[in-house]
Amino acid sequence: MGAGGRMSASKKLEEQKTPFQRAPHTKPPFTLSQLKKAIPPHCFKRSLLRSFSYVVYDLSLAFLFYYIATSCFHLLPHPLSYLAWPIYWALQGCLLTGVWVIAHECGHHAFSDYQWVDDMVGLILHSVLLVPYFSWKISHRRHHSNTGSLDRDEVFVPKPKSKMPWFSKYFNNPPGRVLTLLVTLTLGWPLYLALNVSGRPYDRFACHYDPHGPIFSDRERLQIYLSDASVFAAAYVLYCAATAKGLAWLVLVYGVPLLIVNAFLVLITYLQHTHPALPHYDSSEWDWLRGALATADRDYGVLNKVFHNITDTHVAHHLFSTMPHYHAMEATKAIKPILGEYYQFDGTPVYKAVWREAKECLYVEPDEGAPNKGVFWYQNKM
């Protein structure tokens, strides 16, 4: 993990305490402006035509998969049809995750130069996937503003050992980890939206569907109503489809692929922000640049392209979130020499990485005897 390079004496001391090369946690020797100057200027330009081409491409493939499934699968012999549906679910789930990423890009105003176009496209695409676009956009913006902060980050905020639930030690074993990962990947996203599970603690009940909840300000409440109405409209269309075609048909065609989308969304976000080498900071140490660098690029193989490179260019995305995805690879290559050890990449196969992180990253604590008590690292000894 990491970009390599020479290690200081303190860095070597840390290496004796952990099998991973920890990311630097001190103030970087470069500025955001220096990073920006290293990136070719065209990487910051958003093309409406090019951005829409990805929407058209993804949706065309999605409709093609839908057409093949609904028009051809029933003609197959029964053994083959049982194999065809899982293939459809996998392909459609991965493809619709890419659609989700495009809507995510709209939320960052990285789709076009027109905010109203970005919001219109994002609202439609996310609503089709039952995501409250504006609600998520607002909380996700705060995540980008407070990444790595134990006090203000919005999602996947790790707890210190003293705040871990009493029953967590009973899940610190292989069966417990399997159950935890299963629940997280299947229910994690809807539980986060509805109940703020794994999100930042608020002084009262927080919900992405509640316009008057603590997540949103007064000026944002109308947008939350619009998000809720759009999700309700999409749910009503699905209800009509189930009434006309049957619930089983809806589950096969839409429900299972949506579960895969939700699972990938949680998995991608979890692995981007959870790694034994990544620091977290309390308010005494946190600053925006160090927080933005406390994330890792991962390798999903061919799915990197399907997911529009949100997986392997996430560090650049956190530094320059309005940059369109189709320039992110070039930008990443441009800033890596400047970032040096501050650039974190882990090419561990995803299935191994998620198991390792579930085992090693249980809670965060500062190192015993360390001078920086505001710098927290993942620990695994319950």
Outline, from the CA principal axes? globular
Share of β-strand residues: under 5%
Low-confidence stretches: 4-18
Average pLDDT metric: 93
Q: Biggest β-sheet: count, sense, barrel?
A: 3 strands, antiparallel
SSE string: HHHHHHHHHEHEHHHEHEE
Number of helices: 14
Class of secondary structure makeup: mainly alpha
Radius of gyration: 21 Å
Name the strands of the widest sheet in spatial order. Answer: 1-5-4
Helix content: 40-55%
Distance between the termini: 25 Å
SSE layout:
Layout: H1 9-17, H2 32-38, H3 48-72, H4 78-107, H5 115-128, H6 133-145, H7 174-195, H8 221-245, H9 247-273, E1 280-281, H10 288-292, E2 297-298, H11 303-306, H12 314-319, H13 328-339, E3 345-346, H14 350-360, E4 363-365, E5 375-379
Helix pairs in contact: 3-4, 4-5, 4-9, 5-8, 7-9, 8-9
Task: Give an account of the 3D structure.
- Helix content is 55%, strand content 4%.
- The protein has a three-stranded antiparallel β-sheet, with no helix packed on it.
- The protein has helices at residues 9-17, 32-38, 48-72, 78-107, 115-128, 133-145, 174-195, 221-245, 247-273, 288-292, 303-306, 314-319, 328-339, 350-360, and strands at residues 280-281, 297-298, 345-346, 363-365, 375-379.
- Helix 3 runs antiparallel to helix 4 and helix 5 packs parallel to helix 8.
- 37% of the residues are buried.
Q: Which keywords apply here?
A:
single chain, 382 residues, mainly alpha, three-stranded antiparallel beta sheet, two-stranded parallel ribbon, 14 helices, 5 strands
Summarize the structure.
The chain is mostly helical. Helices cover 55% and strands 4% of the residues. The protein contains 14 helices and 5 strands.
